[in-house]
Amino acid sequence: MKEDRKKMNFEEKMKELEEITNSLYSNNDNLEESLELYIKGIELYKECQDYLNEVKGEVKSIIDGKLVDCDIDIFEQ
What is the Cα–Cα distance from 34 to 76, expressed in whole angstroms? Predict the structure, then answer.
C-alpha cells in the first residue's frame, strides 16, 4: 500500500486523507478497521506535511535569492 502512495501526488493524498477522516467520523468501521485507517491517515498526513515543508523551503529560497530588495515576507502574519 505504501508503494501505491509513492505514485500519488499531493492532491490525491489529501483526497484520500479526507476520505479516511470521513470514514472515521462515520463510525461505521469496527475497531481494527478504524485503527488501520487512523494509522494510514497519520502516515498520509506526515507525507503531506513533509511535502508542504519542502515546497515552503523552495519558495523561501526563491524569495531570498531573487527578491532580495523586497521587504515583503509572505511567511509572516
Answer: 38
